[in-house]
Structure formats: C-alpha cells, structure tokens
Amino acid sequence: MIQATSQVPLIEVRNLSRAFGSRRHRIWAVDDVSFRVPHGDILCLVGESGCGKTTTGKLVAGLLRPTSGEMLFEGRNIWEMERSEFKRYRTAVQLIHQDPYASLNPMHTIYDIITAPLFRHNLVSSRAHAWERCVELFNIVGLTPPEDLLRKHPHELSGGQRQRVSVARALTVNPSFIVADEAVSMVDVSIRVSLLTMLGRLRKEFDVTFLFITHDLALAKYFAWDGRIAVMYVGSVIELADTPRLINDPLHPYTQALLSAVPEADPELTRSKQRIPLRSQDIPSLLNLPTGCRFHPRCPQFIEGLCDVQRPALVDTGDGRQVACHLVARERGMIK
Ligand code: SF4
Q: Could you tell me the pLDDT band of residue 6, with boundaries at 50, 70 and 90?
C-alpha cells in the first residue's frame, strides 16, 4: 500500500487533457491542466459554464479517462493502479453532484440509498448496524429527525435535504477527498450558507480534502478563504493563487473582469464598483478557438501582434502564484 507523505500531494493532475468527439470534430474540454491538492487543503475551480471545470472534476474522481496527462492519487497514476489499489482510490475519492434531484434514485428509500455503499464495502455487519450508521451520518450532516427521513423517498425531501443526503452518502465510505461539483448551486440561497458551513465542518472534523467546483467567485471566496482558487477559461487554468491574494489582487485580466462583476454584501459598495468592460461578451466556441491567448477577443488589455499570435503559458510569477498572460509576464520582466 502506498503511504502519503508530506511531499506527496493527495491529488495531483499533470498536463491533464480530455477531448470529446470524432477525430475530425474534436473538442478539448480540458487542455493541459496541472495542479496539486495537498492533504487537508482546499482548491476551488472557478469559471463560466463550459470552461471544463466539471470535466476536470470527473477526471479527478476517476469517472473519465484522460486523453493525455496523468491523474495521481498519493503519487500514483490511477490508470496504472492494480485493481485493489484502484478500488481503494475510488472509495477514498467521492463526488458530490450538482443535481441532488438526478443523483438519487427516485425508486429507492433514503435508507436504501445510504446503506447500499455500506453493505457493498462490508462497512456494516447487520441491518441494525446499518440503521445505526445512517442515524450517525444524518446527525453529522444535520438531517433530523433521521428515523423519519430514512423511510422517505427522494421526492418527499426538499432540495437542501436531498443535497445533505448526497453528502451523507459520500461520507459512508470515509473519503479522504471530496469533489464537490456546484454542490450548492441548485438549492435556495437561504440554505446555501448552512450547506457550505456543514461542508466546511466536514473538512475540519473529518479531515476531508476538497476540490470545490463553482461558477461563483463569491462562493469560492466564502468557502475557501484559507485555500486556493484556480480560475479556468475555455479548458485551461489561467490563474492560480491562494484565495486572499487572488481576490484582493487578481493579475489576469479575466480574473479582474470576473471579480469586478461580483456583487458586494454592502449595496453601496456594489453600486460604486467599476465593472470592467470586455471587448466582447461571447465565449469562444470549443470548435473554433481563437489563435494565441484564448481570451484575446474579449480582453480589454490585449496586445496586438503578441496576444493574438502566441498562446501564453501558465507560469510561476515568483510569489507563489501562477498566471497565463503575456501582459503580466511583461510587467514582471519575464518576457520583453
Ligand atoms: Fe489579455 Fe493578452 Fe493577457 Fe490574454 S495574454 S489575458 S489577451 S493581455
């Protein structure tokens, strides 16, 4: 068995790419993405819909095979693992889906849904033990009274309750890593905060490491203030930094534009905030990507003859963050 050490991150993706479609009409949903998530850390993937963040989450959760690149769990490429090792990885890494309506089988009771993985992985010895474990898990995720809810079907629960059931199901196998894909975006704003607080508690009390996927920078800021944010644009990471630095001092023009559109808690501040205008509102089609920097048709700081010709690489800026932008590289003396 492979032991995690402090040098080996729990999750690492290296130059991960995933294409869909035929050879003639290939689209790259994820294109050369690399990041590390050490044990206990939290990384948020943020970006507009269609930017590749959900596909990246599925690649990390082992639900999709990469077209190229590596997905490492405790330093081992998951697609080169032995069957038993892969099984251990699949229980250690759990995915919470965006849609609690679709992810729970409407034909089964909540008890059946929660206990299926418990019996499959021999984590309980009897039905009484399974019931006890369900009650324990429901208390952890704040579903009360458990005895009542366990006998119901998914359609008898509210959206927030269903998402808590999804979290409880993920916890049945004691995961060390959770990929939460837009886990709170389909529930009412009023219960979003309590769900986020519950997920944050799991991180601390149960030592769970997170990949938190969201289109909402404000949510990422709230959930991962002590973590890091990777901003994705059209399949690639264009800026990665620890959360306070990315929020307070974004370097990439796309991150700056995204942040300028985030409303503040104080309506006065929102009103006085200057929204950065983009040259175009259109997100490029994956079937017809722009040359050079993929953001150049929209970028207000675009440098003609450079940005439309050469694709900027994601480079370390020397202060612990990574940015893919010619302008930033030029300002920092990294290119002429
Ligand atoms: Fe804008 Fe050029 Fe930077 Fe792309 S590389 S974000 S077009 S300044």
A: low
**Residues forming beta bridges with residue 242, ordered by sequence position:** 228
Confidence grade of residue 261 (pLDDT, cut at 50, 70, 90): confident
What average pLDDT does the segment 308-318 reach? 94
Q: What is the mean pLDDT of the chain?
A: 91
Interval between CA 68 and ligand 1 midpoint (Å): 26
What pLDDT sits at residue 3? 44
Distance CA 90, CA 166 (A): 16
Q: What is the CATH code of the structural domain delimited by 11-110+173-249?
A: 3.40.50.300
CB of 78 sitting under 6 A from ligand 1: no
Q: Could you give the CA distance from residue 52 to residue 45 in angstroms, rounded to a whole number?
A: 10
Where do the domains of the chain lie?
11-110+173-249, 250-336
pLDDT bucket at 228, cuts 50 / 70 / 90: very high
Q: Three-state DSSP class for 54? A: helix
The closest residue, in CA terms, to atom 3 on ligand 1 is 325
User: CB-based contacts of 31: which residues, under 8 Å, 6+ apart?
Assistant: 17, 52, 234, 235, 236
Cβ neighbors of 127 (< 8 A, separation 6 or more) are: none
Residue 299 CA: which ligand 1 atom is closest? 1
- Regarding the beta carbon of 312 and ligand 1, being less than 6 Å apart is answered yes
Q: What ligand 1 atom has the least distance to the C-alpha of 293? A: 4
Asked whether 233 lines ligand 1 (CB < 6 A), one says no
Query: How close is the Cα of 28 to the center of ligand 1, in Å?
Result: 20
pTM of the predicted model as reported, rounded to 2 decimal places? 0.91
Q: Is the CB of 299 under 6 A from ligand 1?
A: yes
